Amino acid sequence: MWLHYLIILSLLVSVMAKYISPIIFWIPAFFGLAFPFLFLINFILILYWIAQFKPAFVFGLTALLIAAPTAYRYIQFSLTKANTDTKQLKVTSYNCMLFDLYNWTKSHETRAKIFNNLSDINPDILCLQEFYTSEEKGDYNNVDTLKELLNTPYFHTEYTTTLRKVDHWGIATFSKFPIIKMGKIVFNTTSNNICIYSDIVIHKDTVRVYNIHLQSISFSKKDNDFLEDVISEKKDAQDEVKNSKNILRRIKQAFLKRSMQVEMIVLHMQTCPYKIILCGDFNETAASYSYQRLIRNLNDSFVEKGIGFGRTYAGKWPKFRIDYILHDKALHCADYRRSDETFTDHFPITAYFDNIDWKK
Q1: Which of the residues 169, 227, 276, 305 has an alpha carbon 20 to 30 A from that of 5?
Q2: For residue 79, is it within any domain?
Q3: How far apart are CA 321 and CA 170, in angstroms?
Q4: Which of 190, 206, 189 is nearest to 198 (CA)?
């Protein structure tokens, strides 16, 4: 019973975490990260008390109902299949992991597979995070490759790192429609994270597309090895207290940096004269403060039209949805799809909008 009370209290704190800035009080953010597990454990304990014919299930059920709107952001069910046609605006967001520049996948075919996947999706607007390109002619001039492959002559790139004056790392937005204005929001951090915005004219409509990559946790190899030992229940993990503190410190710092980055984006969006589509790798779950701030005046395309659990991170941890396509409430999302396969540590996600003015 006391265990269940503790789970209920933790679940309620995790629900409240999305309203509390980590800058003010950072502890609830950790509970928000654990929300899916707390919700599931509470549900199992409710079933246990019901099977025992104990009225204690009422407390868990009350907490379950309070947490239900947050849980709704994690899993979706759709009874009808959405129709897509050529008159819908197709927007894709994808963390392309530098197109496997350093051969993390141990396969020289990965880059070609990534491009084939994007070609199959064929988006009208493509937002890429962890983008890399080289100005030298050859296989790694990814700007020219994507322009030709997707028929996207208009593009907006911003780089956070440049070497040899020709090799660039950063973020990119490609469009089949003209980009009339572009800009960036530079975060006051030493990381490679950034936000760019592109005003895109779609016949008679103008839409501002924000492409963002928020602060990652940046686990070191040692941290990842330790997590692997914990997950696999190995007993020979050394210095567990020190490693655990280091991981918690990294997560805390990421919470704080993302909160500051999000505040800068929200302030900038308040001055936007156009309808907004916001895409990117948030590195945050749907129970987080950062997500809540960004979604305040926008809709989530997955919540509207998604199916299933919606996991977008393909790595080992965390196996949650951390990539999003949010949009202005004046836009109507007709469909949302996550690609079935990926060749990076993220899945491409695509939203379809059907009330854009297509008349020339």
Answers
A1: 227
A2: no
A3: 22
A4: 206
Whether residue 76 lies inside any domain: the answer is no
Q: Say how many domains are in the chain.
A: 2
Neighbours of 128 (CB within 10 A): 31
Pair type for strands 349-353 and 89-95: antiparallel
Q: Single out the residue of 80, 90, 73, 15 nearest to residue 303, CA to CA.
A: 73
Residues contacting 136, CB < 8 A, separation 6+: 166
Phi-psi region of 225 (alpha: psi -120 to 50; beta: other; left: phi over 0): alpha
Residues 80 and 94: their CA atoms lie apart, in Å, by 26
Domain of residue 138 covers 89-218+247-353
| pLDDT tens per residue across span 2-50 | 999 999 999 999 999 999 999 999 999 999 999 999 999 999 999 999 9
Q: Which of 315, 247, 328 minimizes the C-alpha distance to 283?
A: 315
Provide the CB-side half-sphere exposure for 198 (13 A, CA).
24
**Do 336 and 350 contact (CB within 8 A), yes or no?**
yes
Residue 48 lies in a domain: yes
Please, which residues have CB within 8 angstroms of residue 21's CB and are 6 or more apart in sequence?
Answer: 259, 289
pLDDT bracket for residue 191 (50, 70, 90)? confident
Shared domain for 198 and 252, answered yes or no, is: yes
Each residue's pLDDT tens digit, 162-183: 999 999 999 999 999 999 999 9
| 208, two tokens | 């501002």
* Closest residue by Cα to residue 91 from 333, 337, 319, 350: 350
Report the phi/psi class of residue 328: left, alpha or beta, with left for phi > 0 and alpha for psi in -120 to 50.
beta
